Amino acid sequence: MVELLEQIIAECRPDxxxxxxxxxxxxxxxxxxxxxxxxxxxxxxxxxxxxxxxxPFTVQSIIKPVLLLLALMDNGTxxxxxxxxxxxxxxxxxxINVSDKSLVSExxxxxxxxxxxxxxxxxxxxxxxxxxxxxxxxxxxxxxNPNIDVDEAVYRSEKTHGFKNRALAYLLKAHGLLEDDVExxxxxxxxxxxxxxxxxxxxxxxxxxANRGKTVRSETRLFPSEFARFVNAVLVxxxxxxxxxxxxxxxxxxxxxxxxxxxxxxxxxxxxxxxYSPALNEKGNSIAGIHALELLSKRLYLxxx
Length: 305
Ligand code: GLU
Known about the structure:
The chain is an alpha+beta fold. It has helices at 2-12, 64-83, 113-120, 128-143, 152-161, 163-174, 182-193, 199-210, 225-238, 244-250, 287-300; strands at residues 37-42, 47-51, 57-58, 149-150, 195-197, 255-257, 262-267, 271-276. Helices cover 45% and strands 11% of the residues.
């Protein structure tokens, strides 16, 4: 298996030339496009890894399924559904997806920025410091890594350059879809995107979703299985930005990508997979990462369709 992962990295490495690292957040532009890591965690407890699987990077949008999970744990499915839609938008993750007067919650799902910003406001806590701490705590538990923390430089860069997210959040507020203070909610969102993880952590988080709420070693249940079903269903249709349909055809498993270059893949009942390769395609997905998952899916018959 490790040999297979090494072969896949070698075969996909040339793809890196066809993509580029994200630059719209200046701190992300410092990433090395040649980093490439894969970590696979299996339901029998074994794990397989190759390349730069311990290299840290920021989670970015891959925190969105964790945010959704926490909102579900805090409020239940019905209440969450009252605030966000679950349909693919067919538009980029930061699209201002409205014509004026028609911004309604059904128009954005939790995997695009507008939906994720609303989800931040559904997390329980006496203030946004506590809400973020609860998110970080859940991330550490899912990843089985108590050392996960925020990359402060990326956080500052996000906060300084997140003009479009600011515009989106104020628009949500103007349409009565966001109750709390916009800057407080945004601060939580920017911090959430700036959490530093590695491919290993993503594989562990993906595994708990694949295993319907239970961790690999302890059999501890972290959340009810219906919430895993909810998150995985949204990942299949909306997890890979506006490239989700093509990803479903090529790979065929629930997954989430982030502009930091990570992909978390969930193979129900079988595997959690974490990949890091920061050169992105035009949709903001790791170009070599998708190819690697496609090869892995073909070789191991991972597709669920
Ligand atoms: N912090 C990023 C943003 O909202 C996350 C984007 C992403 O990974 O899709 O701009």
